[in-house]
């Protein structure tokens, strides 16, 4: 038996920030991205909360938030009885807020608090997932905290908030959406339900991400990418992810490449590995997995007349999208040195194998397989 649970109420579209007016006399803990503070967007959003609400604002968020940020956030509330955690920002701010919410509750704080998320990137889907990715900077590892307890109660999806994203972050976060959807689609836990969500997200990314990248003010493209991000989040929240994310978590903590960019670099190599497509010997091909990639290739307009061709065409499509978005195609092109790569690769391969996302990868990897993938991505 499978159980699927969608808890988060979604308010979608222009004007959805009005939903914040429903809250009165709350003790609000606002966890927001620092960019929003300096750009003035945070004040405009908080203006929707009426004056009966008391608030503490925490904006010391850094990308890939470390444990120290989670501790500092909880401390900033100084033991106040928080009734509403309002997270506003990209995955880093929302994940940090989710972890603060979780650990504060464990300490007997934030007892009856609810969780609201307002994403300002179109990437992680964190507003609808029970994942929070926290970095242990000392150990050089990222830990996905996975529990239903951190699923937001309400998410507000207003694409006006992503109009300020620069092209490089639009590209990185957009490729994260694609990775979520493709990994959910080939996951060992994929179902008809997650497939439907992933398929729609994949189509939207191929159609609208280049437009959002070329013209950040294209509100239709922004709205579609914002929806794609949440759809992909809903897909992987039931189907989970795979080795692409397992490696990205492990390598991201070492190399500090933006999460979506790292996923993008790894994606063609992971697809190749999962399908086990060897041009010299087709017999080894993982046919069931290759068929799933063939379905995706067809979805985005290729004829993909055989599973092997489908895999190749999907890889081509991903590489073409990377080019359209001016993204690096390898770790070395991003600027990782051979020396740093060689120093960390073994540790990354071991950490990737233990990462929770790797469990649902359609092909069971070994450390030496992961080293091979890393080498080809270098
Ligand atoms: P991010 O939150 O780190 O933000 C990236 C950059 O964008 C930051 O510099 C930020 O200041 C800036 N930014 C945010 N909103 C902006 C806006 N509207 N305009 C201009 N700049 C803006 O990036 P992200 O990709 O959204 O999140 C990445 C994090 O999320 C990683 O830690 C990753 O591991 C995690 N993650 C979580 C999940 C999940 O389900 N919880 C899924 C995937 C990734």
Key words describing this protein structure:
378 residues; alpha/beta; Rossmann fold; Dehydroquinate synthase-like, alpha domain; six-stranded parallel sheet; two-stranded antiparallel ribbon; 14 helices; globular; binds nicotinamide-adenine-dinucleotide
Overview of the structural elements:
The chain has two domains: 9-162, Rossmann fold, CATH 3.40.50.1970; 167-377, Up-down Bundle (Dehydroquinate synthase-like, alpha domain). With 378 residues, the chain is an alpha/beta fold. It is globular and about 70 Å long. The mean pLDDT is 96. It contains 14 helices and eight strands. It starts with 8 loop residues before the first strand and ends with a helix. The strands form two sheets. Strands 1-8-5-4-2-3 form a six-stranded parallel beta sheet. The chain binds nicotinamide-adenine-dinucleotide (NAD). Nicotinamide-adenine-dinucleotide binds next to α4, β6, α5 and α9.
């Amino acid at each position: 038996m499978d159980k699927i649970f969608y808890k988060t109420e979604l308010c979608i579209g222009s004007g959805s920030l009005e939903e914040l007016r429903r809250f009165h006399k709350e003790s609000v803990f606002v966890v927001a991205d620092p960019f929003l503070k300096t750009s003035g967007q945070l004040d405009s959003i908080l203006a929707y909360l009426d004056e009966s609400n008391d608030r503490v604002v925490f904006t010391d968020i850094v990308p890939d938030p470390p444990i120290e940020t989670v501790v500092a956030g909880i401390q900033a509330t100084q033991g106040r009885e928080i009734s509403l955690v309002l997270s506003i920002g990209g995955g880093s701010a929302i994940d940090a807020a989710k972890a603060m919410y979780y650990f504060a509750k464990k300490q007997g704080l934030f007892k009856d608090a609810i969780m609201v998320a307002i994403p300002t990137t179109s990437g992680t889907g964190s507003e609808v997932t029970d994942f929070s990715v926290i970095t242990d900077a000392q150990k050089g590892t990222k830990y996905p905290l996975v529990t239903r307890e951190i699923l937001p109660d309400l998410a507000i999806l207003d694409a006006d908030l992503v109009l300020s994203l620069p092209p490089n972050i639009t590209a990185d976060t957009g490729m994260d959406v694609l990775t979520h959807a493709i990994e959910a689609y080939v996951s060992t836990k994929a179902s008809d339900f997650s497939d439907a969500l992933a398929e729609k997200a994949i189509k939207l990314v191929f159609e609208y991400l280049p437009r959002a990248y070329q013209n950040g003010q294209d509100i239709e493209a922004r709205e579609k990418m914002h929806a794609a991000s949440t759809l992909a989040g809903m897909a992987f929240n039931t189907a989970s992810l795979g080795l692409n994310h397992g490696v990205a978590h492990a390598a991201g903590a070492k190399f500090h490449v933006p999460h979506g960019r790292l996923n993008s670099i790894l994606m063609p190599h992971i697809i190749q590995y999962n399908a086990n497509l060897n041009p010299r010997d087709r017999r080894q091909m993982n046919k069931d997995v290759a068929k799933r990639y063939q379905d995706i290739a067809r979805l985005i307009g290729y004829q993909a007349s055989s599973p092997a061709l489908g895999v190749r065409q999907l890889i081509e499509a991903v590489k073409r999208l990377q080019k359209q978005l001016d993204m690096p195609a390898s770790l070395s092109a991003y600027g990782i040195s051979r020396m740093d790569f060689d120093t960390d690769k073994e540790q990354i391969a071991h950490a990737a194998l233990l990462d929770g996302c790797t469990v649902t990868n359609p092909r069971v990897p070994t450390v030496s397989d992961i080293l091979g993938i890393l080498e080809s991505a270098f």
